[in-house]
Amino acid sequence: MTGELSPIDTAKFVAAKRAVEFVEDGMRIGMGTGSTAAWMVKCLGELVRDEGLKITGVPTSTRTAELARQVGIKVVSLDEARWLDLTIDGTDEFDADLCLIKGGGGALLQEKIVATASDQMIVIADPSKQVEHLGAFPLPVEVIPFGWQTTKALIEEMLVSMDVLGQSATLRMNGDAAFVTDEGNHIVDLHLTRIGNPRQMSLVLNQVPGVVENGLFIDICDVVVTGYADGRVEVLDINEGTLEEDQINFADAENMFADI
Ligand code: 5RP
Asked: Are residues 47 and 116 located together in one domain of the fold?
């Protein structure tokens, strides 16, 4: 260990560190998936270990469940928790309305179910995730394996009449085989460049037979915490209409988590 985080990891860490300040004793927390969310799980684990914070965590993937158990967080299923106080997750893109594209890590289905079953969703991000228009990041769509080629063709046909700049769709691969989600499904990534009407796109996609869910999160996210490499954080709350700035100490981050 060098004792120094890269600029991007520092940004992710400080966003995560600020976001866990929203967590209170006794809360049921939805835990997202991805490299930014992993920092949040580590920060929560630190609070459980060092400050005796009592929380129950609902992970959105097997990866997150493993990490959460490793850092000492009590893990339960969504069926056991039923409803959550707060979900903290990463994102692939967010816009000014806090609409998101998620699913780069392939966990969008559980992520959307868990976030929707929460009183509040906080997204943690580095500045590269903020966009004027959603769509530069390929939009993930989870489809069932049965007839996936037909489903993909139906999606492509639908895209012709949508307000988008690109219309190609690709099956996500894992080496030579199709990528398989935790739910046993495949992902079709839509290369749209710019999505003119994300709300309409989400509704129309979910009408296609074979589509389980898409990676557009509309009216789900309440707060975005953006971290910067110099330790600054911005907390944008869409409901309150507020933007707050803060500074997070990140000097010991690498050493703190060296054993995880
Ligand atoms: C996983 C996700 C992730 O939150 C998203 O891909 C961001 O990942 P990272 O924090 O590694 O950039 O939606 O399905």
From this structure: yes
